Amino acid sequence: MSDDPATRMKNTAAQATENATQMGRNVVDAGMAKMAEYSRIFSDMKMPPMAGMPDMDSFLALHRKNLEVLTAANKVALEGAQTVARRHMEIMQETMQEVSETMRDMTNVESPQAKAAKQTEKMKASYERAVANVKELADLIQRSNGEALNMLHHRFAEAMDEVKSLADKNAKPHA
Question: Are 6 and 100 in contact (CB under 8 A)?
């Protein structure tokens, strides 16, 4: 293993990203398996039609769609989190490389005034990059969460229309 801090940080960040990615995959896989199990259990249930009750097959189909969209939204959120983690790792690698370069530059024989000017310039550039990186990460998170929430919002609206349709279908006109 290298003694270089940038390399150690890069390796640690890569391992953490891989661990988080695998954990996310495991969660999505477990969710999909549970959804399949619930779908199988619900599909095996046969309820006799009852007056005023919705058609169970239609009701279960509606629920199945809800679970599918929820799983898809979770997958989108997980992929977004993985993208953020990867980009964060890249930013950390760039930062560690910059720190190493700065330390090398500061060992050059220069006047104290030149070193101070160079250090001030590097600090300003580092600050501007840090602000840009935070904004980029925030945008990635917002975009990912927005996409997942949009999926859930559309499914909720569809589900409400489907429930209303089921209720209207089962409503009996009073004579």
Answer: yes
